[in-house]
Amino acid sequence: MGGKLTRNIRATCLIVSANQVVTPYPVYPIGAAYVVGALRRSGHRVYHFDLLADGGLNGLMEFLHGKKYDFVGVSIRNLDTVDSADPREYLQDILKTVQGIRKQLDTILVLGGPAFSIMPEKLLTFLQADYGVVGEGEIIVPWLATELAAGRRPKEKIFVASPREGEWYPSDLSTSTVRYYTEHGGMLNVQTKRGCPYGCSYCSYPMIEGKTLRYRDPEDVAEEVIHLQRESGARYLFFTDSFFNDSEKRFLQVAEALIRRENRLPWCAFFRPQGLERDDLRLLKRAGLAAMELGTDAATDLTLAGIGKNFSFEDVLQVHRRVVAEKIPCAHFIMFGCPGEDERTMKEGLANIEKLEKSVVFAFIGIRILPGTGIFDRAVSDGIITGDEPLLTPEYYYSPGIDRERMEEMILDSFGNRMDRIYPCHEFEERIAMLHDMGHTGPLWDLLLTKGRR
């Protein structure tokens, strides 16, 4: 990046959260909130428009009428559902949003968000934007705002953020935006760290946040949690880390900080099913842990290895038994059709799932192929794709060792009429949305553990 920040140059800018997905529940746009906060701290005039909270595309068109901005940033959260049983695409909605902005305004368009970071060049071209930011925007976007307000147009079109240790900016969105999420599921999001050091072959987190873990001050995390409860009306929290339980066990410092602040807000997080002891779980419960989502991902040692996991199914079982012993509701998320999958591993995996008693299991078939991932390379070598596909629309990896239809048949036969075994998952998501509309809070799959059969 060229040029220096000139503090007396203030841009007038708009950040648009383009996500309109409401299943299984509306997700608070925490990435946009961080960028908005960083822009305000840098002295820029910044406005935020959330398509979910503020009336959709029609609401945006009305909002833009008669306005002027030095640039409009569009945050893109998802490309599609990444679920082969419900392969809905979102890019056409994003395109309509961008075209609507272009129709209303003569301005510079900047793209960002996790989906943009996965395939920036293709999305910049597809959406015909001027600039794009890969990764964290808190440093780059304020700098770019200053450049544009000063009339300087950088020659570079895509800027890649360099993750920096210890730099955290407060999130900042309007009270009305926050209220929408507290009234539709009651959940808000908090982040305790960024990055992922693991090499799971399907995962895009290392591309989005980097491969090095960068931790936030636990006291700052606890302060934000208390603020969200007291000032924003949060009734439930989800920690949005790629995984909560880091191997250095700094997550326990977050729990201790929450206990010191006498947190009473229930929360959930995504956990790696490895290395969690019962003492850890007891501490987390005291800090407010109400439910755990476990990234088990595959159901046999062979298929776990096929997607780059460095734990075994026995590791999963050990953690699972400790979680159940501590009476913490938990859900496992498992993909079938991973590299190495065949009828034998299907039978073994379904038998292993039977051992996950007193838990909810969400099953998926196939893996969304994303560029830059190990599963992309495996899909090319297995002849599933050529490697030239744009992948803007979903393509899935299925093991050549077994037909997709046979996998589905085996899963449905095994799961039978159990309420705590979910396939296809999108059918359950519709029920969650209905329960949230009725005023219930949280992820709600834990309710299945108190029910009987369908």
From TrEMBL:
The keyword Iron-sulfur applies. It holds the Pfam family B12-binding. CDD domains: Radical_SAM (cd01335). The keyword Transmembrane does not apply. InterPro entries: BchE-like, CHP04072_B12-bd/rSAM, Cobalamin-bd, Elp3/MiaA/NifB-like_rSAM, Methyltransferase_Class_B, rSAM. GO terms for cellular component: cytosol. Keywords: Iron, Iron-sulfur, Metal-binding, S-adenosyl-L-methionine. Its cofactor is [4Fe-4S] cluster. It comes from the Bacteria. Residues 180-418 form the Radical SAM core domain. Residues 10-155 form the B12-binding domain. GO terms for molecular function: catalytic activity; cobalamin binding; iron-sulfur cluster binding; metal ion binding. This is B12-binding domain-containing radical SAM protein. It comes from Desulfomarina profundi.
